[in-house]
Amino acid sequence: MYQKKSAILQGKDWVLIWMYGLITIIGLISIFSVEYKSNDDVVKSLFAFQKNYSKQFYYLIACVIVAMFILLTDSKLFTATPNLLYVFGIGLMITTFFIGKTVNGSKSWIPLGFMNLQPVETCKIFTALALAKYLSRSDTNFSKPRSQLIASVICFLPIVFSLLQNETGLALVYFSFLLPMYREGFPPAYLVIGASMGVLLVVTLLFPAKPLIIFLGVVALFLINSLKRKIKRNKPLLFIIVGAWALSSLFIGVMVPFLFKHVFQQYQADRIFSMIGKDNPYVIGNTVDITTNAVEKKAKSDKENYNVKQSKIAIGSGGFFGKGFLKGTQTQGDFVPEQHTDFIFTSLAENFGFVGCVILMILYLIMLLRIGFIAERQRSTFSRVYAYSVAAILFFHIAINICMTIGLAPVIGITLPLMSYGGSSLLTFTILIFILIRLDSDRQMVLR
Amino acid sequence: MPVFNQSRKNVISLIFIALFAIIIIRLFTLQVITSKYKILAEDQGTFRKVVYPDRGIIYDRHRNAILQNVNISDLMVTPNKLRGIDTFTLCKILNIDTAQFQKKIIELIIKNGRSRPSVFEPLLSDEKLAMLNESMFKFAPAFYLQERSVRSYPYDAAANVLGYTAEVDTNFLKKHPNEGYVAGDYAGMTGLERSYEKVLMGERGIEYWKRDNKNRLTERLGDREYDTLAKAGKALYSSIDIELQALGEKLMQNKLGSIVAIDPKTGGILAMVSSPTYQPKYLTGSERRKHFSELFLNPALPLLNRTVSATYSPGSTFKTLQALIGLHDGVISTSTRFSCSGAFYGCGSAKPMRCLDVGTFDLRDAITISDNTYFANVMQKVINNPAFPTIDSSLTHWDNYMYSFGLGRKLGVDVPSEKMGNIPTPKYYNTVYGKGKWNFCNFRSVSIGQGEVSVTPLQVANEMAYIANKGWYIAPHVIDSIEGGDKYSQLTAFKKRIQPTNIPDSIFEAVHDGMQGVVDRGTGAGAKVKDIVICGKTGTVENYYKGVKQQNHSFFCGFAPRDNPTIAIMCVVENSGRFGGTYAAPIVGLMIEKYLKDSITDKARVARLEQLSKLNLLPPRIFAELRRQDSIRHSKDLSYLLAKGYIKLVKDTLGIEDDEVNNDDFDKMNKDKPKGNKPMKDTSLSHEAILPKEKKSNNILDSSKRQN
Questions:
Q1: Which residues of A touch B219 (CB under 8 A)?
Q2: pLDDT in tens, A163-182
Q3: Residues A350, A395: one domain?
Q4: How far is CA A314 from CA A211, A301, A332, B59, B357, in A?
Q5: Does B9 contact A183 at a Cβ distance shorter than 8 Å?
Q6: B36-64+155-238 classified as CATH 3.90.1310.10
Q7: Is B481 helix (H, G, I), strand (E, B) or coil?
Q8: pTM for this entry
C-alpha cells in the first residue's frame, strides 16, 4: 500500500505539526524571558541543563524523539492496547499512594530520578484511548444509559484518585471527556443539568442559602401558575418543576456545603471564594473564628489573591504591542509567582502585549478547530472519539489556564499546553497530539 | 451511526470559538482599555532613583574654596549574604561586640529587608576606613563600602556664615512643599547653605531602574531615554577674606561677641565673626548628632550668628550718627561748643548723665573724647527744633535719619535670621507715657546710644560703611556672584547704592575728623596701626541680663584708611567690662592691619595678637551655666572640670585680668563640687538644662534691654 512504503512524515497532518512546533517554540521563548538576566551567557546556559529554559529545550528534543517513535509505530497498536494501558494508568495512580512524592501539597508525583512523573497527567492519554476503545466497540450502543454509565466511569474514575491525592486541578480536566461523549450522543440534558449546577453553585456561593431557596420556590410557583394549562394536559410537568426546585434546594442547602467542607481542601475553597471576593465561610471546625479573625482572614485571602493580582498586572501592563522581548519589568523582576509553569502566559502577554496574546490564541484555536476537522474526517469511531478527547483536554487546559491568569477562573494549577515549563506536561501533550497524527494518517482505515 | 450526531461538531466548534472570544475580549480590556495595571506595574516594577548632585562650592574673595565636598564612605551590608564572614574581626574594627552586631543586623532586616543593602555604619572615620580597607576581603560580599559626598571646610572657619546642612524634617517638608524634597534629603539649614539652597543644591538627576520582587534594583530601564542627568550645584563667590575671618575668630576665642568687616565700596562682607563659634566639620560626619546637641545646649550659644541675630544698645558709637543729624539739621555747626561740668543737666533731673572729661568741647573733640553731654545737647536740639511743631514730628524726623542709616530695619543681608534692631518711635512713647506726656528728657539716654535703641553688629558695621562712603552704602552681603549667573535674582539688591539723604561731604569730613581723633588721641587709641589713618569710635555699653546689671559690652567701630576707605569694621565683646577702647579697639586695629597690610609681621603686634586671643572674657554666668549642665549631665567632681579644661580657662583669665574676673566664680566652683563621688540630684535643674533654643536667644536680647 501507499502508506506502507511512505516515509515517516508522509500523509501526516502538517497544519497540526506546524501548530505544535510554533506553540512549543513560543513557550520556550517565554520561559527564556522569565529566567533571563541581562548578563547571562545564553549559549552556555542553554546547553548546561541548569536553567529551566535549557531543561525545557532538552525536554523538547526528547519529545520530538518520542513523537518520531509514535509516528513510526503501527496505528493498530493504539487500538489494541487501550484497556491494558488504562489499567496500567490506574495502577500507577494507586502506586502513587505508596511511593508518591509530595510537591506543593499534592502527593501525586512518582520520582523517576531524572524527572518526576505525575500519573494523573499521563493517565489522560490512557483514558482518552480507553474511552475511544469503549465507544468504538461494535457492541456498544451509546444511546443506552448503561453504556453511558460505563463510559462515564471510565472517564471519571481517575478523578477519584486524583482528589484523594490532593490534585484537584488535574482532576477537573477529566470533565473535559464530556465533550467527546456529547459528540457521540451523550444526552445534552446531562450537560444542561451540569451547566445549570455550575451556575447554581456560583449563585450559592454569592448569596445566602435560605433566601435563595425561597426565591427559587417563588420562581417555581410562578412557573406553575403561568403553565397552568400545560400542566393540566401534562401532569408530569408539575413533578418536574417541583422536583427541580427540591433538587436545587438540596444542592444549595446540603451538597455545596458538603463539597466545600469535605471534598475541597481549605486552600482550594479559599481560592474559589477569593475569586468571587468573599471569605471562605466553610472553614472546618472553627466557624466562630471567621468573625473574630476577620482581619487575619483578609490578609490570607490577600495572599491568595497575590498571584492573580501580579498576573493581571503583568498582563495588563503589556498594553497593545507589549514592552518588547526581555523588557517586561514584571517578568524580569520576578513579580509573578510560578511564572514559568502555570503563569507562563503572563510572560508572553507582558513582552508581546495584546497582539502577541491574540496571535497565540489564534494558533491555539487553529489547532483546536483543526483537530475537530481531523476528527470528522475519520472513518473509524475510535479515531474520532480520540481526536475529540484530545481537543477537549487541550481546550480545557487552555481555557482554564488563561482564564486563571486573567482572573476569570480560580487558580487551580493546571498548565498551559505546550507552553508551560515541565517535562511531564509537555510529554503528555506531545504523545496525545502525535498519537492523533498517527491515527489520522490511517484515516482511511476502520480501526476498532 | 456517526452521521447521527454530526451536527454536534458545530456546537463544539462554537463552544471553542465562544470561549476564545471571551478570553480575547477580556484581554483587550485588561491590556488596551484599562490603564490601572500599567500604573501598578510601573509602581512596583520600576524605580525612580534620585541622583543627588554635589552641592555647590563656596569661594572666598581670593578664590580659595572655603566650603567644598569630600567623599566619605558608608559601610553597607546586605544581610542575606552574611553567612561565613569574619564577624569577629569586623566587630573589633568597629569597636562593638557581637551582641550589638546581631542586634544591629536584625534592626536593619526589620527596617529594610534581607536582600537590600542597608547602611551598617555611616560616615566612617578615616581610621576605621583604613582598617576596614585592609581587611575588606574578609567581609565581602555581605559588606562593602559606599562613598558619599559630605561637606568639608578647608579653613575650618566661618561656621556661622556658611551654615550647615541637615536631614529635612516634617516641618521643613511642610514649609517647602513643592520644591522636590523628600524625607531623608539633606538641605541647608542655616547660613549661606540656607540662603542659597536653591543654587547650591544643584539639579537632581533621575534614573529609571528596574526593580525585582525583593525590591532590589536590577538594571537600568530601557535605553535611559527618560533619565535626566544630575547637575552639580553652582559655585558661589563670596566677598569673605577667609584669612581675615580666621584671624577674627582667633581674636574672639574665649569671648562672647562678634566682628563684622565690610568693604564699604561694594557692601561685600569681608569677615563675619560670631563668637563662640564651632568647628564647622562638627556638624557633618558621623558624630553630627552628638555635636549638635552639645552645641545646642551650650549656654554661650555657639549656633547663634550674633552678627545678625543679636541686638545691643549701640552705646557711644551712636554719637557719630547724632553728629551727622545735628549738623545736617543745622542745629549745631562744627564749631558749636558745649561744656560739661561733670554731667548733662539739660533735664535738670536727679540722674544726670555723667561725662568723663570735664570741659568745653567742639564737635570734633566731643567725638574724640566721647562726651555724653555734648550729644545729649545735640539730640535735645534736634528734638526740640522749632522747625517741627510737635515732638512727634521731630522724633519721626530723627527716626527717618536713623532708618536711612540702615538702623531699625533689616538690611537684607544674605545670611538668614537677621534681626531688625530697634529705633524708638513716637508711637512707642505715646503708648508708654501717654500722648503728649513725654519729652526729650524721657529718652535722653538714646542720645548716647543707650535706652530703647538697639542695633545688630552688622548694622553698626554698615553704618560705618555709610560714614566712610560719605553718604551711601550698598546692602551688606556675603555672596558677590554666582557661577552661571544669578538665576533667582538673589543678588540684585546688592548691586545698587542706597543714598536716602544728601548730606554734604563737609559734614562727613567733620565727623571723620572726630573719629580720626578717637584713634589718634582719644578713647580708641588701642586701635592705632602704624602708617594707617583709622577713623573709629568706641562704645561702652551698659547692659542687663535678666534684670541684673552685667559687665559693660566693649564696642569699637571704624573704617580705614580715611582717604579711601576699603574696610568698615565693628567689634563687640560682650560683658568684657572696662571700656570700648580696652578690648574691641585693639581687636579692630589688628583686623584692619591684617586686611590692609595683608599680614601682621611686627613682633610687638604679633605678641599683642597672641595676648588678645588668649584673653578670656567669658562672663561668669556662662561658666555657671556650663558647670550646672555638666554637673547635671555627668555628675562628676572637680577632676572632671579640670579634665574638661574649664578650670584652666578660669586660671588663664585670672592670670591676665586679675581685677576684672569675678573670683567668686572660681571659689563657687570649688565649693559647689559634690562631696565624694555621689551623683548630684538633678531633679530641680533638669528642666532648665534643656532650654529650647528660642528661649535662649531671648536671653541674649535681654542683654540689650532698655535701662532707665
A1: 38, 332
A2: 888 787 888 889 899 889 98
A3: yes
A4: 40, 20, 10, 53, 93
A5: yes
A6: yes
A7: strand
A8: 0.62
